[in-house]
Amino acid sequence: MSGFADAVTKGIRPDMTHLYLMYQVGGTVIVKWEAPRGDRKKPFRIVADEDGNACPHCAVLLAITRIGDVLPLGDDRVERVRGEYLSVVLREGMLPCPAIGRSPSLSTPMGDIPLMLGVGSWMAECHVGHGDPSTAADCARHRRS
Asked: What pTM value is reported for the model?
């Protein structure tokens, strides 16, 4: 699990404007890093950690927390997007897509020098998509009843 969160945060670059954790049916998570000089997209299959937990929802929630440690989101925004994620998964039964971004006017590189990650107003919310977010690997806390 922490391997997924580490991979997500290591992909953050100074010119990044948006980051999406696109949860797919079956538990694969496609991570998309957007930047003016080119977007990158990579699928991840969540594997069990040392405790045997392979819950993709635990992995995504950990990644959101770690992203909040790297980007200046603030605890309130991190907790809000985590709460929205859980609402989408557990109450609505839809596919979650945490989205983190900053205003384009604040993230556009100036000449050859991109603005630093600490500059600009970062926002976070959870988008939704159609599909069942449940997997056989869901832990008891994230299993829909």
From this structure: 0.84
